[in-house]
Amino acid sequence: MIALIAGCGNPGPAGPSAEKSLILATTTSTQDSGLLDELLPAFTRDSGWQVKTLAVGSGQALELGRRGEADVLLVHSPAAEEAFMAEGVAGRRLLVMHNDFVLVGPAADPAGIRGTPSVEAMGKIAAAQAVFVSRGDDSGTNAKEKDLWAKAGVTPEGSWYQSTGQGMGETLRVASEKGGYTLSDRATYLAQRDTLSLDILSEGDPGLLNVYHVIEMTSKAGDRVQPEAATAFADWIVSPPAQQMIGQFGVAKFGQPLFTPDAGKDEAALGR
Description:
The structure is a single chain. By secondary structure, the chain is an alpha/beta fold. It has helices spanning about 30, 35-45, 60-65, 80-85, 120-130, 140-150, 170-180, 185-190, 225-235, 240-250, 250-255, and strands at about 5, 20-25, 50-55, 70-75, 90-105, 130-135, 160-165, 180-185, 200, 210-215, 260. Helix 6 (about 140-150) links the parallel strand 6 (about 130-135) and strand 7 (about 160-165). This is Substrate-binding domain-containing protein. It comes from Pseudonocardia yunnanensis. Pfam families: PBP_like_2 (PF12849).
């Protein structure tokens, strides 16, 4: 399901300025965590560009870019992104920020994963055939989940393994209702924690790093792409003011930032 979020700010009077609008395809975590509600009004104010957001899984966001149906992408599925960049239809791919993934589940923890490393935890969930709720939507989170299952030597199947085909917020809700486990980005979990009966049970592995990039689309992807819009957004989100906003997001409400700004950093050193 694609969630279309209308542009932020007032559209202003009719005329050329009202038509200055770009399409951002991004992972649902940036929407469900509330980050875009902070960033996009500031971007519009600073640049004059209105933003129409397509909140989907990273795989779907890349596909929208491939079809020329988005001007710029904000995604978190590095392996898929690298393959996408090799196709030659995109411009720059810039490091923006990171947070991490966490394994969450009911406080009773029927599979006994509390405090165990993520790969071991996945093996325990499968062995116990405890309910696991997957996004199943080709998102960056879904890609990370598949990677963890593979490292655990597990092919998840059976009635205990359930898929929503939905975004992170909805998947967390289903896992909470079913008393199941799921993999979530930390930001979306913290943003919705008060509505969930789920605890963080496994966290902190270097392998749970969750890295976000902005990708500019070019006219090679299609005539509808606005390269100048892509450049405007990419330049802005890695700028010091935007990076400062990212670093402060969540501190007032949760006592910790939900994302760590990374523009200009050595990506290979992240999470060390």
